[in-house]
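Sanity check record (used in CI):
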Amino acid sequence: MGGIGKTTLAEAVFNQISSQFDGSYFIEKVGEKLENRESNHLQLEVLSEVLHEENLKLCTLTNTISPFIKERFNRVKVFIVIDDVNNFIQLEALGKGLIRCGFGSKIIITSRDKQILYNFKVLDCEIYEVEGLNFGEALMLFSNNAFNQNHPTEVFMDLSIQMVCYAKGNLLALKVLGPYLLGMSKQEWESASVDLQGIGDSEIFNVLKISYDRLNGKEKNLFLNIACFFNGYFEDNVANLLDCKYSLRVLLNKSLITIEESGIKMHDLLQEMGREIVRRESPKSPGKRSRLWKPDDVIRILKNNTGTKEVEGISLNMDHLKDVHLNLSSQVFDKMSNLKLLFFNYPLMSNKVYLPNGLNSLPDDLIILE
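Expected output for NB-ARC domain-containing protein:
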């Protein structure tokens, strides 16, 4: 998951122990660097740094690193961090040339995708999944950024706890929220806390969305379906209904979901990010979005028959509504030819959904009617 603190932790370890090695180098944002450079050139940059040689060059004929340079590297105890690897090809191209280092060397690789690390088979390696900060650590970090001290002031204690719970241990969120609220009055904080329930224009959104952008089409669809409808559902149910067992594994390996005994779980920030992606599909016309879950939007669209072929999923949850009587047209779903998921939940007897003239038809692609 983006923003959880992988790079920050790697930097802290690097700063603490790099002096114990003959040479060290921290390769930042490897994925970005390899988009515009060949891996050989980046390897040469690393070797120049750890061998303390400024004039190393690739072999003219083969455009590769010379055996002499590799032999020198094999005898040197080094500490290298390869940060933010996007895919296995990058790691294979860069990492294979760097693991042949001297005895006692250490290499740390950070990635949002555990599968990349599993595929990069190296002896004596361990995979560590970075966890979010615990509540005490999170409150301290937030307070340092929001109040320039280790704890909230008494007036802001409740609001600070609310913000820390909102971030759920995400390092980036805590770092961004603190300065954003620095210097505000209590009334301004209360207003801002409501605004922050949508993270569309924030730095947090942009960082989290990187992981989403790296998914393929089927994986993106599953991510958005979980964000909008299936957060908390049992894994087997979702896998069978949507035929998505492999895609669930991908989301799990990329830390975009966790799977617990109680069901699939998605971090609140990731869920909000997914829902913001859907909202941006049509900011002013909910009926043209792929997924609908807000009761007000759903009721208005169904009541006015303004759904479109873009709609793929609808969830009407009236848990917190009272005395809603919704009369639907018999053509209510006629325009929604791509509708696949349809959920109605109205546990209170005071809420009713009526089809006084029946229903002409349901979309051919409908998978779930619950």
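Residues 6-119 form one domain. If this sentence no longer matches the regenerated tokens, the check is flagged for review.
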